[in-house]
UniProtKB/TrEMBL annotation:
Encoding gene per record: Esrp2
Domain RRM: 331-411
GO terms assigned for molecular function: RNA binding
Biological source species: Promerops cafer
Domain of life of the organism encoding this protein: Eukaryota
Location in or out of the cell: Nucleus
UniProt-listed CDD domains: RRM2_ESRP2, RRM3_ESRP1_ESRP2
The protein's name in its UniProt record: Epithelial splicing regulatory protein 2
GO CC annotation, single: nucleus
Family to which this protein belongs: Belongs to the ESRP family.
Signal peptide as annotated in the record: none
Keywords: mRNA processing, mRNA splicing, Nucleus, Repeat, RNA-binding
Record GO biological process: mRNA processing; RNA splicing
């Protein structure tokens, strides 16, 4: 028997059903006996949603109202009634088992499974297997339209069935027409047999990706690849998200075994992104429809990715890792901060008998640097959720003289971290070498009310300087040197905005007219003329919209390299180095010893001809993470001392070794808390006003340390 099922949500209808995360408000179903060609009673049930605000399309198509839905039962009660009524109808027809049949896959995969998962109740087993009427129809009638173009109406018209929807209530006509289509497929001319239903996986299967294992052992061959049409990138995940959390976000879709790869940053910490591989391209396309759906209170961005990217994150393994991950259905916990002298016995003793490790010592995997030194990280296998929960309770307990951090982990993370032992280059590439220009640049950010700048809004997140220059076309020649400023958000990611300084207001006007809503890659970009003052407001954290300028929240600017200070300073530090050195507007003046005839004052020297300072730091996984290496300074030749002493307007960096970086500050930390933390140590004076010429706006930033002393 089949149970023909139709449903609708409070939002989008048709091909976009479920894409807007709106709740189910209608279910209509009818039992069909395929052998006797008899049908049961047709049932229609309204569903009371938590949000009864119906979209215009929903009101127009369904004719439902919030008042009518307010009297309905919630989804869990409706599903209970569904099971009871179906069982009753089957009994009347002399049948005992059934399979659902729906118009396409959206109702089951994109509506019912995600909604019940968010509301924390389980669907019955019948919702994990169903027939897609569109696929079955195309199999029965190969000359009909493609599956993706099929609808109930087009299938009925192909068979010459009546299509007057006005004769029946919304949902009733759809189910009756679907039943008529099924009977036509069962007729003597077709004799269609329903044999291979669609399936929904009950749970995500952890373990190593088989293609990734094969990729490692055949890494010299380029023939082994992951189909790029099956991979997506999820961005904006909470940092504590596990592979199971991501699988729950994509509930209803079939993720390949070991198909969740959490991305790590250069310090081995999760960066809020993951690559997810699905069993086929159809599932991937459905996953893309969940762009900006919510995980808790956060919306998750979903984009296409490539198989090469997935292999780069999840494809690293070794015999040791393969053996460690060969035990399936295990819960993986990552330990961080272990003493470098810790042994397997120490770790087993730390975990204790209440959380036994699978296989004893075989269930432990220590992470080491390529030269064999321990990193302080280890992965542990547990046979069940209870043991893993007991282990997580030991988070930040002491082993030796160090506290140990414990986190949920994944097979892909194990492969990604441990890969660094076996490859000559890190899996996550070394960060680009930051370059600090130490020559005062001749060009600074424009100021004033002259509208000689343009703002680009809606840039693709992958767009770089070259893409912008290509987008500008012939107008590239009218851009001031160093005049392209790409704006990053507070997480250091592209915000989709950029500012460009043109040589004149006329040039800016022409660019805005010519390039407005011109396409860059697959997005159109808005281009607006603006002034240097407006550009500065945005670069300092303010907003520029139709309502005018909104003052910045007194935060440092966040610019991509090459970065520019928000204030007109002589030296510029790029974004990669900004985490190590704040812009000079926020640095104290250097304490210069009293000059004497024997020893001139010590001055940090900036060479006169295109000299650069370089910082290099690698991307292996220290635990706990350490700061990048310190920048060295160039000794000043005697002739430069006098010139430097007279150039009082030039900002000077602190003396070597006088600057420290603090990591892990609470977000509400202020100047008072930081000074209290360093009580007993001598620090530089906070006379920032004498460092450079400050505008009132810049001075207000410096006088509100609680706003900018924040990492």
């Amino acid at each position: 028997s089949l149970v023909v099922l139709f449903g609708a949500t409070a939002g989008a209808y048709g091909a976009k059903l479920g894409s807007d995360e709106r709740e189910l408000i209608l279910l209509v179903w009818q039992v069909v006996d395929l052998q006797s060609k008899k049908v049961g009673t047709l049932h229609k049930s309204l569903v009371k949603a938590d949000n009864l605000d119906l979209s215009d399309q929903c009101r127009e198509v369904s004719g439902l109202t919030p008042e009518g839905l307010g009297k309905a039962e919630p989804l869990d009660r409706v599903l209970q009634q569904f099971s009871q009524l179906v069982s009753s109808d089957l009994k009347v027809l002399g049948r005992s088992s059934y399979t659902l049949c729906s118009d396409g896959q959206l109702l089951i995969r994109q509506v019912l499974h995600p909604e019940t998962s968010k509301k924390n109740f389980l669907l019955s087993d019948c919702f994990y297997s169903f027939y897609d009427l569109r696929k079955e129809f195309h199999t029965c009638y190969p000359s009909s339209a493609a599956v993706k173009d099929q609808t109930i109406k087009t299938m009925a018209e192909y068979l010459g069935l009546g299509t007057d929807e006005a004769e029946e209530d919304f949902g009733v006509w759809q189910v009756k027409t679907m039943v008529a289509i099924i009977f036509s497929m069962l007729s003597e001319g077709c004799n269609h047999i329903f044999t291979e239903p669609e399936t929904v996986k009950y749970k995500y299967e952890t373990g190593p990706c088989l293609l990734c294992l094969l990729f490692f052992f055949l890494c010299s061959s380029k023939s082994e690849t992951v189909d790029s049409e099956t991979v997506i990138r999820a961005r904006g995940l909470p940092w504590q998200s596990s592979d199971q959390d991501i699988a729950r976000f994509f509930k209803g879709l079939n993720i390949a075994k070991g198909g969740v790869a959490l991305c790590l940053n250069s310090q081995g910490r999760r960066n809020g992104e993951a690559l997810v591989r699905f069993v086929n391209s159809e599932q991937r396309d459905l996953a893309l429809e969940r762009h900006k759906h919510h995980m808790g209170s956060r919306y998750i961005e979903v984009y296409k990715a490539t198989g090469e990217e997935f292999l780069k994150i999840a494809g690293g393994t070794s015999n040791e890792v393969a053996q460690f991950l060969s035990k399936e259905n295990q819960v993986i916990i990552r330990m961080r901060g272990l003493p470098f002298t810790a042994t397997q016995e120490d770790v087993l003793g730390f975990l204790g008998p209440e959380c036994p490790v699978t296989g004893g010592k075989e269930g432990l995997l220590f992470v080491k640097y390529p030269d064999g030194r321990p990193t302080g990280d280890a992965f542990v296998l547990f046979s069940c959720e209870e043991y893993a929960q007991n282990a997580l309770k030991k988070h930040k307990e002491i082993l030796g003289k160090r506290y140990i951090e414990l986190f949920r982990s994944t097979a892909a993370e194990v492969q990604q971290v441990v890969l660094n032992r076996y490859m000559s280059t890190p899996l996550i590439p070394t960060l680009p070498t930051p370059i600090i220009p130490v020559i005062p640049p001749p060009y600074t950010i424009a100021t004033g009310s002259i509208r000689d700048c343009v703002r680009l809004r809606g840039l693709p997140y992958t767009a770089g300087i070259d893409d912008i220059l290509e987008f500008m076309g012939d107008a590239t020649g009218d851009i001031k040197p160093h005049g392209v400023h790409m704006v990053l958000n507070q997480q250091g990611r592209p915000s989709g905005d950029a500012f460009i300084q043109m040589k004149s207001a006329d040039k800016a006007f022409m660019v805005a007219q010519k390039c407005h809503k011109k396409m860059m890659k697959d997005r159109y970009v808005e281009v607006f003329q603006c002034s240097g003052e407006e550009m500065n407001f945005v670069l300092m954290g303010g907003t520029l919209n139709r309502s005018g300028l909104s003052p910045p929240p007194c935060k440092l600017p966040c610019l991509s390299p090459p970065a520019y200070a928000a204030f007109q300073t002589a030296a510029v530090i790029p974004a990669e180095a900004a985490a190590l050195y704040q812009p000079q507007a926020l640095l104290p003046t250097t304490r210069t010893p009293q000059a004497s005839a024997a020893a001139p004052p010590t001055v940090t020297y900036y060479p006169a001809q295109a000299a650069q300072l370089y910082m290099n730091y690698t991307a292996y996984y220290p635990s706990p993470p350490v700061s990048p290496t310190t920048v060295g300074y160039i000794a000043a030749p005697p002739g430069a001392v006098a010139a430097a002493a007279t150039a009082t307007h030039t900002p000077i960096l602190p003396q070597p070794g006088a600057l420290v970086r603090m990591q892990g500050l609470p977000y509400n930390t202020g100047m008072k808390e930081i000074l209290s933390f360093f009580q007993g140590y001598q620090y530089a004076p906070d006379d920032y006003n004498g460092l450079i010429q400050l505008s009132d706006q810049a001075r207000s930033v410096l006088q509100a340390p609680k706003e900018w002393v924040c990492l």
